[in-house]
């Protein structure tokens, strides 16, 4: 049996070479560079005109390559499951000046820093004295604060909130959004962002030196009714593969996520050009993250065999500090797309030669247990076989410094080629892929043991609670309509409890996707399985807090 399995895998490796050598003939770096420039010239905030413009440009490119396309419009304020479509919003202009006495110590404009204004923030203007938000007090004319922006918007009494994020690059303006629905924009307050480095400087002046700072600002925004666009480009009548990328985010938004959007276009381009023997049915979709994806279930021409979410890929890793990661679906879902993508990434990215002549990685790549945070979550909630290709961490993630200079068009091409090859294995070579998946499963089991030894995670806990085999395959109907996103958790748990849960690493992913799915398919003690799968080392009180939060959520939603 082992010999037969080995022979099958060897044949599949020969197949990989043949198919890959065919696919690599078609993509070009200039094409990818043009796609990246096309996307990053727009500020693509969810609900903005720039998002529509970017989607229309990609639609035209897809149609030139023979794909049937359409744009699905999602009206502002529409709800689907636990996801609400935000208000439509365009920033027109914004500036801020911070003065110490008569001297301006900082002056910024949105034209130079596109993330200066928090997405969906109301406009406004004025001047006021700066106050520092602390646990016991958070009010004033202008308040410097951090945390959950929706909470700040609803609970801080100020004309202007200056928002900072210590988890973003300290010299950059962080990207943040309110994602408010129509009717919630009527509060008479504006939210702008500043770099964490500047926030520390301001806190030093006010709190340590006892000086007064004056802040003047003006923000002009336009609310409208354009809604959200979802671009769907499909080819083929048989069930195939969905390749999805979120195209939203403010300008420039190169790594997140012009890069994944461009790699998706590479897949589309290659499949449109290769000989029929190498084609397969595919749908290529560009969405506003989550808020567009949740409306797709009945919009596809067929139920996909697998889903690849192309998020952040193709960066100059020496700049971003990233590692390309294949993210597995939860272990309770049987997956073929994850092993297909893993071996395809190795094929595409092992372009260097070791000392003894063996092929080795030309970039950093790895794999990861299931991780929440992008559009694959929605397909996982539907019980589908979905994986994500994503680079993490990223130095300038969610800041105004996430620009085109951080992206390598060549690496973006190879990321697209890896996805194209994975789709071929899934649709055309199921027998060989199942053999690869068996090897992949053995590899994953060893990977967990090594990770546990490396990090000090209990091997006994791992052996006891890590799910040994999948519980479900592709479901005929969704397990959940959507993941449970932060806004719903915030409303159910309440402000203070949500803020406490948010500080526990991995808690939101458990509460938002893993727990409700596991509950629905009948997995008992799923908090322990989650901890083993994600190698999460919670303290007893943290596990208790998360478990109690889940019981509250479960009761509120009748799960």
Structure explained in plain terms:
- The chain has helices at 2-23, 29-40, 49-64, 149-155, 196-208, 254-273, 317-320, 337-349, 376-381, 409-428, 430-455, 459-465, 486-493, 495-502, 507-520, 526-534, 540-557; strands at 68-74, 79-80, 83-84, 88-100, 103-109, 124-132, 142-145, 160-163, 190-193, 213-224, 228-235, 241-246, 282-287, 306-310, 323-327, 352-353, 359-360, 365-368, 386-392.
- It has 559 residues and is of the alpha/beta class.
- The chain folds into 3 domains: 2-84 and 227-442, Aminopeptidase (3-Layer(aba) Sandwich); 89-224, Glucose Oxidase, domain 1 (3-Layer(bba) Sandwich); 451-557, no CATH class.
- Strands 1-11-13-12-14-19-15-18 form an 8-stranded mixed sheet.
> Which homologous superfamily in CATH is the superfamily of the largest domain?
Zn peptidases
CATH fold group of the largest domain:
Aminopeptidase
Structural class: alpha/beta
Can you tell me the residue ranges where pLDDT is under 50 for at least 5 consecutive residues? 1-7
CATH architecture of the largest domain: 3-Layer(aba) Sandwich
- Count of alpha and pi helical runs: 17
């Amino acid at each position: 049996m082992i010999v037969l399995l080995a022979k099958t895998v060897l044949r599949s490796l020969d197949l990989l070479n043949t198919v890959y050598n065919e696919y690599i003939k078609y993509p070009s770096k200039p094409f990818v560079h043009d796609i990246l420039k096309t996307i990053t010239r727009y500020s693509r905030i969810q609900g903005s005109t720039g998002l529509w413009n970017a989607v229309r440009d990609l639609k035209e490119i897809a149609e030139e390559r023979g794909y049937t396309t359409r744009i699905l419009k999602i009206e502002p304020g529409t709800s689907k499951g636990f996801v609400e479509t935000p208000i439509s919003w365009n920033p027109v202009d914004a500036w801020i000046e911070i003065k110490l006495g008569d001297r301006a110590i900082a002056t910024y404009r949105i034209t130079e820093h596109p993330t200066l204004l928090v997405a969906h923030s109301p406009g406004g203007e004025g001047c006021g004295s700066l106050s520092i938000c602390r646990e016991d007090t958070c009010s004033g004319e202008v308040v410097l604060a951090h945390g959950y922006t929706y909470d700040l918007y609803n609970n801080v009494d100020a004309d202007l909130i200056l928002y900072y994020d210590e988890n973003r690059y300290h010299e950059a303006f962080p990207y943040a959004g309110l994602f408010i629905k129509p009717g919630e924009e009527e509060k008479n307050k504006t939210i702008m962002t500043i770099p964490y480095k500047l926030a520390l400087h301001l806190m030093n002046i006010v709190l340590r030196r006892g000086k007064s700072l004056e802040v003047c600002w003006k923000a002009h925004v336009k609310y409208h009714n354009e809604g959200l666009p979802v671009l769907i480009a499909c080819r083929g009548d048989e069930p195939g593969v969905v390749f999805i990328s979120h195209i939203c985010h403010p300008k420039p938004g190169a790594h997140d996520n012009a890069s994944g959007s461009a790699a998706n276009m590479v897949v589309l381009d290659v499949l449109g050009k290769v000989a029929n023997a190498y084609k397969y049915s595919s749908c290529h979709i560009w969405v506003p993250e989550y808020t567009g994806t949740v409306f797709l279930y009945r919009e596809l021409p067929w139920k996909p065999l697998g889903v690849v979410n192309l998020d952040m890929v193709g960066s100059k890793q020496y700049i971003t500090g990233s590692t390309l990661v294949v993210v597995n679906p939860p272990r309770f879902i049987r997956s073929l797309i994850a092993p297909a993508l893993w071996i395809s990434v190795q094929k595409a990215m092992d372009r260097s030669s070791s000392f003894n002549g063996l092929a080795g990685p030309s970039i950093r790549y790895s794999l990861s247990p299931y991780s929440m945070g992008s559009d694959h979550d929605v397909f996982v909630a539907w019980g589908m076989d979905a994986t994500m290709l994503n680079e993490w961490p990223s130095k300038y993630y969610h800041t105004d410094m996430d620009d085109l200079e951080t992206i390598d068009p060549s690496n973006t091409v190879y990321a697209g080629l890896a996805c194209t090859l994975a789709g071929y294995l899934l649709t055309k070579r199921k027998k060989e892929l199942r053999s690869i998946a068996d090897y992949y499963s053995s590899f994953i089991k060893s990977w967990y043991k090594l990770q546990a030894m490396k990090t000090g995670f209990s091997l006994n806990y791992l052996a006891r609670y890590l799910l040994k085999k999948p519980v479900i395959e592709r479901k005929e109907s969704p397990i959940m309509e959507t993941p449970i996103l932060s806004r719903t958790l915030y409303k159910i748990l309440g402000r203070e409890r949500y803020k406490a849960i948010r500080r526990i690493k991995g808690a939101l992913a458990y509460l938002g996707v893993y727990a409700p799915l596991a509950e629905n398919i009948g997995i008992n003690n799923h908090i322990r399985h989650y901890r083993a799968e994600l190698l999460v080392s919670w303290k007893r009180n943290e596990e208790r807090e998360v478990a109690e939060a889940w019981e509250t959520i479960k009761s509120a939603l009748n799960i």
